[in-house]
Write a structure and sequence with these properties.
- The structure is a homotetramer.
- In chain A, helix 1 runs antiparallel to helix 2, helix 3 runs parallel beside helix 8 and helix 7 crosses helix 8.
- In chain A, a hairpin with a 4-residue loop joins strand 2 and strand 3.
- The longest helix of chain A has 24 residues.
- The first copy, chain A, contains eight helices and 13 strands.
- Chains A and B meet through strand 10, strand 11 and strand 13 of A and strand 10, strand 11 and strand 13 of B.
- Strand 2 of chain A pairs antiparallel with strand 2 of chain D.
- Chains A, B, C, D: This is Formyltetrahydrofolate deformylase.
- Chains A, B, C, D: Belongs to the PurU family.
Chain lengths: ~300, ~300, ~300, ~300
């Protein structure tokens, strides 16, 4: 995205005067080898950083190492970034440096179903969900009042087969203009183009229903009803060009019974969807989700 | 099976002397229409039966009606059966009459994994699971000691492509000889032939792993690991000729994380498997599961 | 309450012309004895009623019998009521006759926390929660905008020690005036007087946090944090004069860890609270909850 | 205990020849301050140790820091211990060094209920629960066959008010003789003396039922039934002199309904008990549980 989380929004304080204390969150991954944690914590310690939370994971299968560490520091961010860049080069690291208390600039995309949007906006306002919802985009007008009740600008961008390219261009323009860092597909019933998926890779979260066994195609709740499933689930995942197959962030289920009609199943499903999506967005916004190929490492 | 649950094992008491009180469970299904509950409860009431538990369900979609009722009665069973047979003819009912406190004669089939067998035998002995395990059949010798510790005869019936027909004939012989009413596939890693499935229809319960999304083919836990699933599940279902697609009785899941190796996932899966299988067997043995086409109605 | 659920809001159709089909829900309890189900279903069948759902439960301990039955009927309601009154006298029944598709007239009471109110209003509008929220009463002004966004009148009735009697009188006036059938205390941080509890008995639902073990007194989430609990729960119950000890309708929990601050625990708690309260209100509004002394029978 | 986890069972390899690779697990806690992780990982890195898993937690409230790290190393254990001892003195650390693949020598204590014992023995044999059950002690003879089936010596130590001191002395003798590192009270219905609790502090795990709300005194499941609870739970905790109030390791619940008799509730409770106890024992045996005053830090 245009305003990556790793770029300071304002110019760093000049070195001559001490910076105020910042609470930063560093996430990184690299090929595993001895000494990484020591090197990283050394870079932080030399700058007087105090680690407040830290998790690591070494994937034996892929040989990759993952780390998330939060640190209180008074050192100017630019100096820390220089140190990390050096480390990154030594260890072939991919890394990001975010701020613990800065909510992610988030764009929510919707169609007509209100359950996920309502829940995200409520949690952002009252329940400490660390996102700053800078806009809601709908391909229909239905949810404008919900966005506006929460004081969030709503933009309607209708999509047809003919206007899809144009609509996506408008969307990308908005992403740039608003400095969007995270896009949440909150039951946005449109498929993003491959190029858009690629462009926003790792920064778009989607939610969809899930069952055991799973069903492809239309009317999934009718299929689930016909099959007599006893559990209704939902999966939140990063969007990739491979529809509904991106890296899974979170999943959950709720119980169903023979007495549930397809509509009742759908309502139970929507309940799980909003809960799972909110959890996934929270973890992502707290920089707790790291990509590991087509999987995720989540440090909850 | 040879000894259906609806047949009294001993001759009924002669009408001249009052029968002892019996606690019976009646399950039935038929096309829905006004008056069924009244007619059924009337048949029971006229015989002085006292209803202790009762559930009904009308499936709007299929137009079928389902009922389970438990009743305390002193009337000879044969008379009750005569009344019910008449009702059944009027309402085109399928029905079964079981005894609340009589454990089902159960045969458990296994291969090498002990988790489901151990759990079922323990629950049958100590936790009130209402089954009488009359035998354990394994296609390997591995679990003989487990069966014998619980005082249950173990029979090893190896199966190869060449001997499959013969092995199934031996199995059916055992089912007849032991008066088996329920067969539980407790991680029995063999596929039953179509004819055997048909022969034992509605009386064979299987357990298998389940994921969201689901995976076909070999090494499912490795596939689940590769996909990074956050839930591991299991499904208990009646066996039909359509492998792993029979009517679902019960499902459940447990949480997984990126830190779980394929082996760890498998162990978590086994934990869910034994829990889900025990629940399904309990409900079946308590006559709480009714077939509704390819689905079940469960009155828990 | 002034407008009991069993009273038809409009005059019954005259017997000379057939009534339109109504979908009614009958709930009843009485001392258990043979023949009750037969008698009740007979009363319904004689009037051409078709049972769509039905559940019964006999409590062996108290000797009480509970029944819920939904029925499609064209018979005038007054005639059905006459029949039921006769039955009730024979069997010493307590009974209520409601309408399946008529949402309960509901008053929600709040203080400052928005999570339960927001959730109930959303579910009533979009998720089929069968309540008609006719008013929101707050002892503070904070949640007026939420109510008004959903088009529900908000009344602020402040409460102090001195004005408590007066405030409750105003509340009761509102209950009468609006024909309120259900009062939901959605984190209303005031204790109702004994007389008010008595007056509205069985029609007021409250939600409160729950832990294992439980904690009395102020700052419960700080206590739970200090004790290091691994689960955070909530209980929805009918309000009685015995504070927080009324009949339990529903309970649930969510996981917590050492990393959760008291604030994080509270947010998790609020998540469970709104889910449990919504479930309890749904079951109550669908006439699925019957009182059994200080317990409930819930037919889900 | 007599054979602390930090003492190598065999003499360390002489420095002149390289040790075989060991997989060690280090747990530590100390007052929080900058540089701890760097110092600890430095000590490991200097010895060529490769970190395979690592978690940290800083408790803002108590100002304490907790760390668990697993490391592959070829350095002789004694040298690593010398380094750690030095670090520990600098940072006022409490620390323990265990082996990842060495099962804990465990003594299980029982009375008459088999569910927890059966489950632990099964999981130790077949499900990778990393404990080596070196003995089972019962105050009754009932469970001797279960222990012996799993090839574990059973010792009956009856306890009466008069013989309690003597019985505990025998128990302690056994703990010393067998080199016991962990004692699990698997429904052992006796209260340990204060001095015994103190002597084995942090190495005894107990399981007990839990409800929302909680109940004190006898027949808890009858009380839970009378109160109409909708959840049945269990808590695993370290034993302290303050009965049932030691640091909580794990909790879980299962659903109950009005239809559950006290016996049914108890069976559901036993199901949760064995699951929660097994989870707590697993985490403890994997050195994932650290004491934080009267709470625990669990790195799952």
């Amino acid at each position: 995205m245009t305003a990556p989380a790793t770029t300071p929004a304002t110019a760093p304080a000049t070195p001559s005067e001490p910076s105020p204390t910042a609470h930063l969150v560093l996430t990184l991954s690299c090929p595993d080898r001895p000494g990484i944690v020591h090197a990283v914590t050394g870079a932080l310690a030399r700058r007087g950083g105090n680690i407040t939370e830290s998790s690591q994971f070494g994937d034996e299968e892929t040989g990759l190492f993952f780390m998330r560490v939060t640190v209180l520091t008074r050192v100017p961010r630019s100096e820390l970034e220089a140190d990390l860049a050096e480390l990154a080069s030594t260890y072939s690291m991919r890394w990001e440096l975010g701020e613990v208390d800065r909510p992610l600039r988030t764009l929510i995309m919707v169609s007509k179903d209100a359950h996920c949007l309502t829940d995200l906006l409520f949690r952002a306002r009252s329940q400490g969900l660390p996102i700053d919802v800078v806009g809601v985009v709908g391909n229909h007008e239905d949810l404008r009042p919900v966005a506006e009740f929460y004081g969030v600008p709503f933009r309607c961008i209708p999509v047809t087969k003919e206007t899809k390219a144009e609509a996506e261009a408008e969307l990308l323009g908005l992403v740039d203009e608003l400095g969007v860092e995270l896009v949440v597909l909150a039951r946005y019933m449109q498929i993003l183009s491959e190029s858009l998926c690629e462009r926003l890779r790792g920064n778009v979260i989607n939610i969809h229903h899930s069952f055991l066994p799973s069903f492809k195609g239309a009317k999934p709740y009718h299929q689930a009803h016909a099959r007599g499933v006893k559990l209704i689930g939902a999966t939140a995942h990063y969007v990739t060009a491979d529809l509904d197959e991106g890296p899974i962030i979170e999943q959950d289920v709720t119980r169903a019974s023979h007495a549930d009609s397809p509509v009742a199943l759908q309502r139970k499903g929507q309940d799980v969807e909003r809960r799972v999506l909110a959890q996934a967005v929270k973890w992502h916004a707290e920089h707790r989700v790291l990509l590991n190929g087509n999987r995720t490492v989540v440090f909850p």
